[in-house]
Structure prediction request, 335 residues.
Amino acid sequence: MFDALTKYILGAAAISLQGLAVYTILQPISIVDPMLGFFFWQVLAAFMMAWFVLAVQSRRYHRLGGMAFAHVFVMCLLLPVGGLVLFMSLILTAVVFPSVRRPAEFTLVENPTFVTYLIARVRHGMGARLRARLENPLVPMDDRLSAMAAFRSLPPHFTGSVLQNLLSDKTEEIRLLAYGIFDTAEKVIMQEVVLAREKIAHATTSAELAGANSRLAELHWELIYQNFVRGEMRGHTLKRVEQYAQEALELNSRDANMWYLLGRCALLKESADEAETFFSRAQRNQFPSGRLLPWMAEAAFLRGEYTKIPEMLAPLSHSGTASSILKPVVRYWTT
Prediction:
């Protein structure tokens, strides 16, 4: 901004003008009052001193240039000689005792990435560790096979999507094991579906028919929840859940679980208004609030009604019934 020569000229000009102002005030009174000359030279001295300080100050203060200039100008104007001595002393001190330059405390870094081969060092999140070991082709085969065996003990809704991905794994043993686990779990549900349909065929009362339809709705929902169906098949299964739930409610409108299930289906279709209606009916029929309130808050979020979410989740923070996964969400919205 200012070269070295300009800085020297400004400093010398400020000292010279200040000396001229002092010389003028010491002159005997004549036709022209010495105070007028002193004030004229003092204004110029203060102006030059302000420019000099602005020229030599650190770059970090450049954004405050206007305020710093005004501050120095006023100080030098109101404190003749004293203001100049003060700021010259500060500048000389900075020159004689320069600050120690330290390396920058902050720097730009690349976005972090998950490195699967370091997963062995992790001591928490067993599900994540198993998933990383299974999906990493660099892991030894014996380690992947043992991880696949341990994978059976995890919840089906967590393993479903992983198993589907492993069906296209390059290793034949992994593909076969994934298919076996996947197929076994799916067959268990489909066998239950067959039994429920038989109950519908042999139902003699409306209560039995309602129960069988309710069971079919829950089983088809499990196919979605456990990630056994994708794409168009998932959409078809979702329609079957809604169909059986509606048929069950026609026979028993107080089935809170079916209203809840219809609300979950509406959320999957991002139909927040329908979801709110279904959840409200479930709430009126004594559906457990600990399971219902998070999904009602989800519907409010989809509608953009963010102010309602803390009110909906407040009972969960007070009662302590929220799961470990849900607690951070409740804490975020209620604090």
Q: What stands out?
A: The chain has 15 helices and no strands. The CA atoms of residues 111 and 270 lie 31 Å apart.
